[in-house]
Amino acid sequence: MTAPNRELPRTTIAVVAILFLLISSLYIVQPLLGAVIWATMIVVATWPVLIGLQRRLWGKRALAVTGMTLALFLLFAVPIGLAVGSVAGRLGELQSGQLNNVTVPPPPAWVQKVPMVGTKIDTAWREVSTGQVDLSTKIQPYLQTIVAWLGRKAGSFLALVVQLVVIVIAAGILYANGEIAANGVRRFAERLAGERGDAVIVLAGQAIRGVALGVVVTAILQTALSGLGLWIFGIPQAAFLTAVIFLLCVAQVGPALVMFPAVFWMYSSGSTGRATLFLLWTLVCVTMDNILRPILIKRGADLPLPLVFLGVIGGLIGFGLIGIFVGPVVLAVTYTLLVWWVTEDPEHTSPAKEAAATPGVK
Fold it and tell me: Using the 8-state DSSP alphabet, how is residue 106 labeled?
């Protein structure tokens, strides 16, 4: 008679206990999990910058960590905090519907020549520009909707500011103990899958740096050049439009949705010469990412560009802003594992190899 396996209940209970502890731990850290993931992505992407800064600061890690943490705070937490405060300060003015110092120029002559709707647009435009129709009254219903939405989202904005502060703090901790954390993750992956597990972790880090260089840096450069053009050529609300351009560039849409309407506005205002120069500037801003992005991505990681592009778009849609990093990393790791699995099977002989090894078969 076969003796009962006494190790099976013990192993089952041990696995259930470990799963319970893991799930409980994730539930406890869940409110901070997003901030920790963001901090990890930022630290992995900017780790070479930290090492370079440490060399310039006499090898002092504490000074380098302090400098990087302050830079993150000034680049992220402060601007968004000021933006939230500015929006909160404007809620009352928007609620009243008063638009101070807003003037509408008369419509250009070509508006009336637009087929079918030109006459109506020209008439409505002239009524507003001459003061026959109060612009505040016209847009009051839309302002009320916007203010109501802002009021509902005020708590989310404040939570965003708090989360940014947590991200900066977590990034500072990871900067100070980055090697320990990286070694722990790599050893865990090696325990799971041997050398392949360690290689996957290295690949994930390269993918994060590639996305940071190819997507984020390109978006920053595009935004800077586009915003400079808006400011030089005197486009109204240049600061706000620059912020919109940055969001569009991160989402891989590009600055065209803002820049080309600005060009159209300049032509309609009668400044043909300046509008043509601005059009040339816009063409440079719109097309520069096609040159910069491939070069920068290849510097960070040797990954197929369509893979990175699909990862950024799909990750952004599926996971929000953090998805621009998560999407390419997941696709890169999956793609690499599939390549390894397909190409490494010593017991498998392909039909082509069998044909080559058979005499008389071509």
Answer: P
Residue 2 CB-density burial (10 A; 0-12 exposed, 13-18 middle, 19+ buried): exposed
CA distances from 209 to 147, 254, 300, 302 (A): 39, 21, 5, 11
Owner of token pair 């319970």: 20
State yes or no: pLDDT of 230 exceeds 80.
Answer: yes
Residue 332 CA to residue 328 CA, distance in Å, equals 6
Q: Which two tokens stand for residue 278?
A: 């601005």
pTM: 0.64
- Of the candidates 235, 241, 270, the one whose C-alpha atom is nearest the C-alpha of residue 107 is 270
The CA-CA-CA angle for residues 43, 45, 48, to 5°, reads 85
- What mean pLDDT is predicted for residues 322-341? 80
Q: Which two tokens stand for residue 297?
A: 């991505």
The CA–CA distances, whole Å, from 29 to 23, 33, 194 equal 10, 6, 29
Query: 160 vs 32, which has greater pLDDT?
Result: 32
Please tell me the distance from the alpha carbon of residue 333 to that of residue 204, in angstroms, as a whole number: 7
Q: 12 exposed, middle or buried (CB, 10 Å; 0-12, 13-18, 19+)?
A: exposed
Q: Of 304, 291, 300, 289, which is closest to residue 255 (Cα–Cα)?
A: 289
Q: Give the whole-angstrom CA distance, residue 288 versus residue 266.
A: 22
Determine the Cα–Cα distance for residues 268 and 216; give it in Å rounded to an integer: 34
Burial (CB count within 10 angstroms: exposed 0-12, middle 13-18, buried 19+), residue 265: middle
Structure tokens at 30: 């869940």
Q: Which two tokens stand for residue 75?
A: 């680049």
Q: Dihedrals φ, ψ of 332, to 5°?
A: -65, -45
Q: What dihedral do alpha carbons 42, 43, 45, 51 form, nearest 10°?
A: 140
**Which has the minimum average pLDDT: 22-36, 212-226, 297-311?**
297-311
Tokens of 239: 């600061």
Whole-angstrom Cα distance, residue 308 to residue 328?
Answer: 5
Distance CA 50, CA 68 (A): 7
Cα separations (Å) of 213 from 86, 105, 203, 263, 297? 31, 43, 15, 29, 6
Q: Could you identify the residue written with the tokens 């096609």?
A: 290
Residue 103, number of CB atoms within 10 A of its CB: 8
Read off the pLDDT of residues 155-166 as tens digits, 9 standing for 90 and up. Answer: 555 666 677 788
Give the number of other CB atoms < 10 A from CB of residue 68: 23
